[in-house]
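Complex 263.
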Amino acid sequence: MIHSALMNVMVKAARRAGRSLKRDLGEIENLQVSMKGPANFVSAADKRAEEMLYADLSKARPGYGFVGEEGGVREGTDKTHTWIVDPLDGTTNFLHGIPQFAISIGLKRDDAVIAGVIYNPANDELYIAERGKGAFLNDHRLRVAGRKQLNESVIACGLPHLGRGDLVLAHKELGTVMPRVAGLRRFGSAALDLAAVAAGRFDGYWERDLQPWDIAAGILMVREAGGTVSGMLGNDDPLATGDVICGNEMIHRELVKLLKIVN
Ligand code: IPD
Ligand code: CA
Ligand code: CA
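Predicted structure with D-MYO-inositol-1-phosphate bound:
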């Protein structure tokens, strides 16, 4: 498949940082048994991947701004373009040697995300999307699932954990959604959850309190695969609120309705 020049840049950067993460994943198993544990090692792997991404992306597109989870905001001279990057989404999985993590790169032009790449180096799944040009997984065109009913749907979500999130609200939401769906999943990488909705693997997904680098690329991926994405209100901007609900038009509508009842 022939990619645009921009997509070539993004894919090349994601693959190089991905090779680094994959090498580091191989070390995790040895480190699990060491006294210190792998947490420091993972944080170093994370930062190293971000620096690689920054180096490659800023070399190819000098002047673009860069917002990364690890390094924060690096202003560019070109105020219209900003990379939004999570060098390792699914850190907890990575730390535990679970091969469900990804590099997520979004490119914003003014207020719109115009390109996204999500790459899982562990299984070499590469998701790409450009605005108006569709979404692809390893060069196969993606389309969200067509199921119309929640009772036949597999829905992914995010859950609070130690030190993060609203437990009471999450329990209420789970109690409302669980009995109405064919299955609920919590995979631990927001970027890959969105990518899986784009690929029609999950019928829908919701999560609260996310950051732009978790979702910038994934939101575009779902939309370019024909899906609907919003915040909790159903028509608000998930990048602005940090809350995401998505699926095909029907499943999105049903999830919005259900989750509204909870609040
Ligand atoms: C996390 C993952 C996870 C989501 C968390 C995020 P990180 O990102 O996307 O699925 O539930 O809220 O912070 O910390 O692994 O980059
Ligand atoms: Ca993340
Ligand atoms: Ca991260």
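Residues 5-32 form the longest helix (28 residues).
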